[in-house]
Amino acid sequence: MSPLAENSGPVVVAAVIGLGSMGLGMARSMKRAGLDVVGYDITPAAVDRFIADGGRGAATPAAAARDADIVVSVVVNGAQTEAVLFGPEGVAATMKPGAVFISSATMDPAVARDLAQRAEALGLHYLDAPISGGAAKAASGALTIMASGSKQAFDTARPGLDAMAGKVYELGDAAGTGAAFKMINQLLAGVHIAAACEAITFAARQGLDLDKVYEVITASAGNSWMFENRVPHVLAGDYTPLSSIEIFVKDLGIVQDMARSERYPVPLAAAALQMYLAASGAGMGRDDDSSLARLYAQLSGAQLPGAANEPEKQ
């Protein structure tokens, strides 16, 4: 894709609110594509990292959004997204009419619909656009984005979407649909991580060569994307958080709430949620979600590589 700087039109200004492992990669991807990117994070060091890359920094979300055509919010949940939009230093107060707010957080579809209505009442566009793919794909501009919103929201967001994503699914013309698709993804992801951790620790309890287990399973029908991606963390004894236990406490909790409201049974997601809750209660909430394997090890006496049976210091 050619950088926007090669085009005859004006440079698109984008603000990224939240420069964690995902947001920083997304900001870098847009800058690499030729957008003029301003970053904000509650942690000043995160802003400094982006400035060191040649980006611009801002002291508040409102300041970051002042001249932006596109504002990308890369925070954890609906409550944080609401604060980014409408809090004391929120972007809604400074975004120009016709600018688009891209919400990347995982949240209940009803919350996404409410935020969109409030933003649109102020003359702003709102794109419900949760993301998937992890930090590596964020850094390379190859995320999957599950988006829904008006045609105007998509049109305004297009330069940012093209820069950040390998695949953009356009799922409808109203906010909430993207959020609902993401919750289906999170149901599967949470269950698959729990199953992968249960299986690899069961293998350890039987005294199997875990590297060989990984080799065999990834070439067999029992493999999953999450087994292939998360089990190497267990084999390395490295639980540095790339995606934390608390993320799935939140997301599977949303699944439970949605299912309960519709009287729909989700027993596998419910069982997985209990394991994430137990891991969080055992002090692993901020650690990588593969820490479920450590919880299984604690419960069973299985031995995993490294200091795997002890939670990281919080």
Automatic annotation (TrEMBL):
Keyword NAD part of the UniProt annotation: yes
Xref: NCBIfam families: ThreonDh
Family listed: Belongs to the HIBADH-related family. L-threonate dehydrogenase subfamily.
UniProt enzyme class: oxidoreductase
PANTHER family assigned to the protein according to its UniProt record, in alphabetical order: 3-HYDROXYISOBUTYRATE DEHYDROGENASE-LIKE 1, MITOCHONDRIAL-RELATED (PTHR43060), L-THREONATE DEHYDROGENASE (PTHR43060:SF17)
Any GO BP: organic acid catabolic process
Function: Catalyzes oxidation of L-threonate to 2-oxo-tetronate. Can use either NAD(+) or NADP(+) as cosubstrate, with a preference for NAD(+).
Active-site residues, as the UniProt record annotates them: 182
Keyword list, A-Z: Carbohydrate metabolism, NAD, NADP, Oxidoreductase
Domain 3-hydroxyisobutyrate dehydrogenase-like NAD-binding intervals: 176-296
Entry's EC annotation: 1.1.1.411
Pfam family, one: NAD_binding_2
Species of origin: Rhizobium giardinii
Residue spans crossing the bilayer: none
The protein's name: L-threonate dehydrogenase
